[in-house]
Amino acid sequence: MTSTQPRRGGQVHLNAFLKPPGEFLAAWRHPHAVADAGVNIRHVIELARTAERGTFDAIFLADLVGVPLTSQEVLSRVSVVNDSFEPTTLLAALATATTRIGLVATASTTYNEPYHLARIFASLDHLSGGRAGWNLVTSLNDAEARNFGLDSHVEHELRYARAAEFHDVVTGLWDSFDDDAFRHDQASGVYFDADKVHWLNHAGTHFRVSGPLNIARPPQGRPVVVQAGASETGRDLAARVGEVIFTAHPTLPAAQAYYADIKARAATAGRDPDHVIVLPALSTIVGRTQAEAEDKIAALRSLLDPRVALADLTYRLGGFDLTRFPLDGPLPELPPSNQSLSGQRQILDQARADNLTIRQLADQIARDDRTLVGTPTTVADHIQEWFEQRAADGFNVIFPYLPDALNDFVDLVIPELRRRGLFRTAYTGRTLREHLGLPRPPSRYASRSGAPT
Amino acid sequence: MTSTQPRRGGQVHLNAFLKPPGEFLAAWRHPHAVADAGVNIRHVIELARTAERGTFDAIFLADLVGVPLTSQEVLSRVSVVNDSFEPTTLLAALATATTRIGLVATASTTYNEPYHLARIFASLDHLSGGRAGWNLVTSLNDAEARNFGLDSHVEHELRYARAAEFHDVVTGLWDSFDDDAFRHDQASGVYFDADKVHWLNHAGTHFRVSGPLNIARPPQGRPVVVQAGASETGRDLAARVGEVIFTAHPTLPAAQAYYADIKARAATAGRDPDHVIVLPALSTIVGRTQAEAEDKIAALRSLLDPRVALADLTYRLGGFDLTRFPLDGPLPELPPSNQSLSGQRQILDQARADNLTIRQLADQIARDDRTLVGTPTTVADHIQEWFEQRAADGFNVIFPYLPDALNDFVDLVIPELRRRGLFRTAYTGRTLREHLGLPRPPSRYASRSGAPT
Fold first, then answer.
1. In sequence order, what E strands does A166-260 have?
2. B448 backbone dihedrals φ, ψ, rounded to 5°
């Protein structure tokens, strides 16, 4: 059983959630925004180096494999996800432009082949000297499905079943060669030991994959697996395979309940709960004074077009067309959907709890009222409280607008966290696993021979 | 009709075919080889920078999505393809470590989804400022098929039909946004012009893809498409979609015949033959004197294990087990195969023409007798003759061992080519298209509106 006593000592883990020009829908209209931020490699390298200067554990890249279907007119007013680098190629480029920070990319198990993903993340781990992480997702919406021969998103339970098998195949492929397989013995002519390569010969419900992978075992053994399961099925997957859990909760008690639940599920699955690192999202805007911080967010919010807010709510609710209902009436019951169940549930709860009209809800979500607006002290207080009260092992820090919110976090909040002994002052490890205090996983073949069958 | 008169003036194009530790099967045993060359990013960056110093048009990366199935014992003596970076992530890493050289990666249309590949190559083109190229292949062998749920490689005609449709989808996705779609107009709040985004809505035999791609049109409009079709079907595809054609011929007349044929097919397909650049493979080992060059290849050949030579022949013949036949007898008739038809045909022709036994054939292929061993003058003579006699627009330069053969080519051959006015002395362009003299393709929507249907 995991302790529920307040935690003393220890340090938080922080991921930098980089989505230039920022998470806020109108971030690109900010005067300091870089116009083509999503595809400007010089800009993104600068952001990555700032995050590395702040000794973040990792850069975290979200992803969609499509453009959310909404009205073309409204879509044209939003930068997010419509023009950005593909995450694995971007992280590979950042691997040679940084030296220590971890590199986590999102990739979907629903619309990929495990052999390709295993290979890409193994390659990224080798390129970066052991800094790769894979955020395993099952994708979100119908717009993605329609780029892969389907009419609508794969059904929720089916895609989680596929995800579990996908993970099993990928980790098996990463173990294709034993850690000490490659001898490079020029004198004897033995490149690798013949008994240290393993054919996976996987034949399951969703995949048949022979292997072996055509690359040495990754420096980390396996890249770090990140997961964000929130539904029942999602939590079970997260607890079984996730090493870092990305989550989001509006209140301390909700976060504590999730934290305890995931750690308990991990223990039930036979894992060490300390090796399942729970990182809630934390969106912040920081000022030297509270007034300065408030001014910053007010300036940002003034840039938001109400049409964009409503379109964003439509998208978050699975494309359900809200324009058929009175804007100043309540949110109607929604039809069943295959999209992210937990995300929709949170929005519905928010609307019902505060009796919001559609217009109010759209405005509240788009205004991003959950963003913590404060001074270095108040933000550090929040981080410390959630950490000590076992609501978090650290945070996925979300930047409403870039580069300013990242610069402010690194220059104002991180020094305060360091002063309190809550965060590293320099990297002590070389790999992402070392930053996170996660052990290097043994190969599944650690005590077997690997003759092909 | 393309001229058959000897060519005067003009310059050759050169790709550096990088496959560390080199193309020769025993290259990894050379004293200057880097032990873990396939996954050593510092080493590969050094190779890339050497190629850039030599003002090569591009780095060219071959690929297989699997480990060729052969005996485990023999496999363990070969470095090639068993331990190397995945090409697109490697090129993304090289994009930030180089400034001008083109970056061409091989990717299979048989075992990929067009949305992913379109996105990865668009991303690579943005990352590199317009230096990306895609070598479109249909994959080679059963070992690859078995990593994607199949028992054997997809039938030849079917995979070429799929490849043609795949290419059509990918180029359509690259055109999702018009070149001038993104306005980033902070004042009006218009991120892109609503009428300048295009849903592909492709519904074909092999793919249904909605689009749009979630990234701006690549800097080159479309990354350069490289193709290596050699069979009848392959040549037709190459002539229809290839902008650079990678090929291989043992003699000048054979190369001239292929060159004329591809240019004629391109013209028949309505294309400008000058925009189809034919680059035969050229494997070279260069010495300051002929004797020095001969010594180098003799030293390299002495490292070859005969078991490896036989296994390599087996692999090249589609996995057909030759150990059942007398080693000193003739090559038997081979069963039909779905693998690379042209490669097998060339090997059979070679065996029949010289009346070779299995042992002799294996030795000859593994010894790589087609490697041009000479001085800077003789190698430059060969390049000049093939160029002037319309057998080539340049070459894919293959390095039997790395880094030496690349260093020698850059330090010895390229100065000689420059002295003759046959090769650039510095990059004049910024993009791969500019290096190759290829026009920037217009969008397929250049004169249409893009309302979703």
1. 182-185, 190-192, 202-203, 208-209, 224-227, 244-247
2. -120, 165
CA distance A331 to A88: 38
Residue A73 touches partner B, C-beta closer than 8 Å = yes
For residue B68, what pLDDT is reported?
A: 76
Q: Chain B closest CA to A200's CA: distance in Å?
A: 10
Closest CA relative to residue B230, chosen from B111, B349, B320: B349
Tokens of B128: 């590199």
Q: Report the b/e string of A391-423 with b at 16+ CB within 10 A.
A: bbbbbbbbbbbbbbbbbbbbebbbebbbeeebb
Quickly tell me which residue has 């069979």 as its tokens: B231
* CATH homologous superfamily for the domain B13-175+207-296+369-436: Luciferase-like domain (3.20.20.30)
Do you know the residue count of chain B? 453
| Distance between CA atoms of residues B376 and B419, nearest Å | 11
Q: How far is A50 from chain B (nearest CA, A)?
A: 17
Looking only at the bridges linking them, the beta strands covering B208-209 and A244-247 are unpaired
pLDDT above 60 for B449: no
Mean pLDDT rounded to a whole number for chain A: 91
Chain B contact for A215 (CB, 8 A cutoff): yes
- Give the pLDDT confidence score for residue B271 in this predicted structure: 97
Straight-line distance from the first to the last Cα atom of chain A, in angstroms, rounded to the nearest whole number = 42
> In terms of DSSP bridges, do strands B244-247 and B224-227 run parallel, antiparallel, or are they unpaired?
parallel
Any idea where the domains of chain A sit in the sequence? 13-175+207-296+369-436
**Residue B453 with chain A: CB contacts under 8 Å:** none
Binding residues of B for FMN: 63, 106, 156, 160, 231
Strand partners, B209: B202
Q: Which pLDDT score, from 0 to 100, does residue B151 have?
A: 87
Quote the strand ranges of A224-329, DSSP E.
224-227, 244-247, 277-286
The pTM for the full model equals 0.94
Per-residue pLDDT of B302-329, as tens digits, reads: 998 888 888 778 777 766 777 778 888 8
pLDDT at residue B349 is higher than 90: no
Is the CB of residue A214 less than 8 Å from the CB of residue A173? Answer: no
Confidence (pLDDT) at B450 = 46
Of B297, B395, B399, B406, give the one whose Cα is nearest residue B19: B399
Whether residue B96 contacts residue B129, with contact meaning beta carbons closer than 8 Å, is answered with: no
Contact A211, B65 (CB under 8 A): no
Q: Residue A448 — φ and ψ, nearest 5°?
A: -120, 165
Do the Cβ atoms of B93 and A127 come within 8 Å? yes
Please give the interface size between A and B, counted as residue pairs whose CB atoms are below 8 Å apart: 241
Asked whether the predicted pLDDT for residue B93 surpasses 70, the reply is: yes
Which two three-digit tokens encode residue B55? 């003002």
Per-residue pLDDT of B26-53, as tens digits, reads 999 999 999 899 999 999 999 999 999 9
Residue B184 parent element (H or E): strand B182-185
Cα–Cα distance list, A255 to A2, A64, A380, B258 (Å) = 15, 26, 17, 67
Quick check: A210 and B184 CB within 8 A? no
Rounded to an integer, what distance in angstroms lies between the CA atom of residue A243 and that of residue A223? 10
Most B CBs within 10 A among A49, A185, A188, A191, hence the mutation to make, goes to A191
Report the candidate in A35, A40, A84 with the shortest Cα–Cα distance to residue A63.
A84
Identify whether the C-beta of residue B209 lies closer than 8 Å to the C-beta of residue B115. yes
Q: What is the pLDDT of residue A452?
A: 44
Query: Residue B446, Cβ neighbours under 10 Å: how many?
Result: 10
Q: Averaged over A149-171, what is the pLDDT?
A: 93
Peptide bond into A212 cis (omega under 30): yes
Measured distance CA(B93)–CA(B96) in Å, rounded: 6
**3-class SS of residue B125:** helix
